[in-house]
Amino acid sequence: MKESLDPKAWWNRAMQDFRVARLAAKDDVVNLAATICYCCQQACEKMLKAYLLSTGWKLVKTHDLRMLANEAKKTVPALSLLLPLLLDLNADFNQSRYPFTFDETVGDADAKQAIETMERLELLLKEHVLTDPDNAQLKHRDE
C-alpha cells in the first residue's frame, strides 16, 4: 500500500488522533495515559508530516518527532521552543507502545503534557498548512 503524499490527508488523520486523545483524556486520563500519549505522538507526527509535505518535502517513514521537528524548524523557527516537549513525547510514545518496554510508567501528568504539546503544535502549524492555497480545504480539529 502506497502512503499518501497529500498534506490534506495527513492533516485530517492528525486531527482524528487529536480528537481521540482529547476524548480519552476526558473519559479517564489516569488509566488511559499511555494511550493518550500514543495518540498525541501520532497527531504530532502527522501534523509535522502534513506541514513538511506542503513544502515539497519527500516523505520519510519515521516516528521520530525530533527529526521531523528539526526539518520543519528550518522554515518555522518557532518549533525550536517545542522541541524539548516533542522529545518528551517521543519517550512517552516509545514507553506506551509495548508492555515489555515499560521502564517507568506513563502517568496522567505525562498525558496532560502530551495534550498540551499537541495543542501547541496544532496552533503553530495550522496557520502555515491552512494558508497554503492548495490546502485551503483542510479540516480544523474543531469542525
Question: Which keywords apply here?
Answer:
143 residues, mainly alpha, disordered C terminus
CATH architecture assignment: Up-down Bundle
Number of domains: 1
Structural class by SSE content: mainly alpha
Kindly state the number of beta strands: 0
What can be said about the biggest beta sheet?
Answer: none
Q: Any idea of the CATH topology? A: Four Helix Bundle (Hemerythrin (Met), subunit A)
Taking Cα atoms only, what radius of gyration do you get, to the nearest Å?
Answer: 15 Å
Order of helices and strands: HHHHH
**pLDDT < 50 runs, ≥5 residues:** 135-143
Characterization of this structure:
It is a single chain. By secondary structure, this protein is an all-alpha fold. It has a single domain (7-133), classed as Nucleotidyltransferases  domain 2 (Four Helix Bundle (Hemerythrin (Met), subunit A)). It is 63% helix and 0% strand. The protein is built from five helices and no strands. The longest helix has 23 residues, at 108-130.
